[in-house]
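Narrative of activities, Objective 1.

The group set out to show that a structural description can be obtained from nothing but a protein's sequence at a throughput compatible with the screening campaign. Below is one input-output pair from the validation batch, recorded exactly as produced.
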Amino acid sequence: MTLFEKVRVISFNPPSVSEPTDVAAADSGEAAGSIVEVGKDLAKKYPNAKRVTGAYLSPGLVCSHTHLYSALARGMLVDIEASKDFAHQLKNLWWRLDRAIDPAILEYSALAGCADAAMCGVTSLVDHHAGPEAIDGSLTTIRKAYEEIGIRGLLCYETTDRNGMDGAKAGVRENVRFAKEVDAIRASGTKPLVEAAIGGHALFTIGEDTLAAMAEAASSTGRGVHIHAAEDKYDAVDSRHRFGRDLAARLDRAGLLGPKAIVGHGLFLTESEIELMNERDVFLAHNARSNVNNSVGYNALLAKHRNVVLGTDGMGADMLEEFKFAYFRHREFQGPWWPGDFLACLDRGNRLLERYFARDWTAAPEAAKSGAAPFFGQVKAGSPADLVLWDYEPPTPLVGENIGGHIAFGLSSRSVRSVMVNGKFIVEDRKPAFDSSRIAAGAREQASRLWKRMGERR
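Output recorded for this entry:
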């Protein structure tokens, strides 16, 4: 048991900052992984608890779309041909990188990415993996990295036809295999730290047969699709040219649009497609920094989406940095949203987690389990103990109405003191509970191998 004493609880939904209070979180026993109680003077009730003090306590941050396989691309020393457009950039850079991944490279990509996230106060990562030369068992390798660091999340393999139909079938097979692996973990009586989605690469690389196979995988496993769509204009044009339908219509016709579906990017979706996605209660993962880095443009219709969540698309996992970039980029394009709207996007990653993990939280109120009230991303009894302790001394009052403003203009990951996931500290007093030195050393070794293998794959 851990007792956070006299902390001011920052709530993202609804936005609020409490008076000093105590929060008790369990790491063992029947309530393991949960917040047990929030109230005053709890030390008397839990005399044997580990006592922690601090300024502010908040729910953990969620990165709702990333690519851990890009963790070893930082500072990459590889001869990359200049690209005239996004399709060429995929071919010249990212598709060479994912083809160069082998199990050892994958392991350290995942470990390095998860470790980086933990130090930034991120407690959950939604990953979108590719590695066509090492598909089988790849999601288990990533799961083990999540568990070593102690981070929660969702995993999938991005199925595609671009490596031939055998590769497409292997991608679907890996998604289904991993979903069954998670089911087996749950059936054994253990709450899984990692869940499964059914992944797909950009729709211009997926034909109708593969899309149908993905839909069958989603239906048979009870999972949702996690897919790139309309990241570049080419994707939208290709769909209309080859298939006679908008991207969202293709997905909907296949039965893949639903409340567990995650669509990455969506810059070139039309208003009618957005209406369809909203009707189906789909999540749109906005990745502002990546969109700029890849020169694909800006999502001018962002505010029309019902369920916007924030991701990094593999550009690290600092969600407060991503928040700032998303907000300032939106202001540059004279969008209607303010910091509070992006705070809602940041929090909404928890609604995504609820749709995959709700069955594991029997201690949550019945209303929460049915979806009527949030319980992930909440600091209340019965909610998952995924928490961040902040050392932040605001120069202006910090209250519910201006939490978003403090993130946009002040609070950063430098203020993260401790991070808890599932009731256990993965970072405590800025010291990781995992072997960060070993991970960094191993990652550097594997990064050199990755870059060499990329040079062999022109």
